[in-house]
Design brief:
alpha/beta, 7-stranded parallel beta sheet, 15 helices, globular
């Protein structure tokens, strides 16, 4: 059986888009091919991938830093260990192609695949490419479409030769369950009637402290208009209990697409997950992750959605008062909300998962034919 390797991880933003591509690839290739995933041996990667019924192989993963740190020495050995482990996995599984969704863990598998003569393809979810993607492009197959980007402007961050020959702009891959989401199922899960106006607040699978604190500070104002459905993350401990107007959840899993479809407005960070919101045409209130612990990619993503007319963005230093003002502008202006919905849908109409899967399938079948 021919095997196809996927790699990426560290956050759901690196894993779920990859799973969307894997889903479409299975539809195109049928049962004669096997997909497996190489991810971090630590963290949540394994759980998410195995829930999608894809075989998972863990490798050591070291963080790539742009600044001096003694941890770089330790992580260098992890990267080398990841390369050796990935070589062994790729050989044993007889992979014919590797698709990377990014993150630090993806670098050793991409390097290993290139060293073994296996074709490498990669996708960048953010407006500007991260360090892992910049490194991985050195290993990408020199074929047209080897590098996929979510945003058109991302191509400008690559050298001209790469930009002209090897980049395909496709949007961000989104799982088909979001495109087929049923808002009534979301309301049934939340036990809300059809007239309830829903504000969905997301901080990622682990939650986000800043987002949670903004909700705490502005909740009394928010529930005057909306039923606030809040994915808090598992670590949050509040003395605010669930009510008819405030429904906190540590994590929403299978029901999330339907809950999102039922929401009138979605608020949260501006990572790769915002493309799921766009597929469903949701007006957005974005609170990008900022500061020394980030390279500013979420700020860039948020600016794109704001410029397109799909989002309002909470600027650095703005707090609960500004958040309430932004929410009220959207909530009490039907025309503005309709414009944001249309702008959001326009961004989400590109089916990145199908575009990438088609390119991968063509390369796999061409290679398979040659081997035959």
């Amino acid at each position: 059986m021919i095997s196809i390797a996927f790699t990426g991880g560290g956050t759901g933003g690196h894993i779920y888009p990859g799973l969307a591509v894997a889903e479409e690839l299975k539809k195109l290739l049928g049962s004669g091919f096997k997909i497996f995933w190489i991810g971090s041996s630590a963290g949540m990667d394994r759980l998410i991938v195995e829930e999608a019924k894809i075989d998972f192989f863990g490798v050591p993963s070291g963080k790539l830093r742009r600044y001096f740190s003694l941890k770089n020495i330790i992580d260098l050995f992890k990267v080398i260990g990841g390369f050796i482990a990935a070589c062994r996995i790729l050989k044993k599984q007889k992979a014919c192609l590797l698709f990377s969704k990014g993150g630090f863990v993806s670098v050793p598998p991409c390097a290993a695949a290139a060293a073994l003569g296996i074709k490498v393809f990669t996708h960048e979810s953010d407006y500007s490419p991260g360090l892992a993607t910049k490194i991985n492009t050195r290993f990408v197959s020199r074929t047209k479409g080897g590098i996929f980007t979510a945003y058109e402007d991302t191509a400008a961050f690559f050298p001209e030769k790469i930009r002209n020959e090897r980049i395909t702009i496709c949007g961000n891959p989104v799982r088909s369950v979001f495109r087929n989401a049923d808002p009534q199922k979301g309301r049934d899960f939340l036990k809300l009637d059809k007239d309830a106006r829903i504000l969905l607040v997301l901080g990622g699978s682990q939650g986000a402290h800043e987002v949670n604190e903004l909700v705490r500070a502005s909740l009394c104002g928010l529930i005057k208009t909306y039923t606030v459905v809040h994915q808090t993350g598992p670590a949050l401990k509040w003395d605010i209990e669930e009510t008819d107007r405030y429904k906190p959840f540590p994590y929403i899993k299978e029901e999330m697409p339907h809950v999102m479809a039922a929401a009138e407005l979605v608020m949260g960070r501006s990572g790769a997950g915002v493309w799921e919101w766009a597929v469903l045409g949701k007006p957005m209130l974005l609170i990008p992750l900022r500061g020394s612990g980030t390279r500013g990619d979420q700020v860039e993503n948020a600016r794109f959605f704001q410029k397109a007319g799909a989002a309002q963005v909470l600027a650095e230093g703005e707090g609960a008062q500004e958040l309430l003002q932004a929410v009220n502008i959207i909530a009490h202006n039907d025309i503005e909300r309709e414009k944001m919905t249309a702008a959001s849908l326009k961004i989400g109409q590109s089916d990145g998962a199908k575009i990438i899967a088609q390119v991968l399938a063509e390369n796999i079948m061409n290679n398979f034919g040659e081997n035959k």
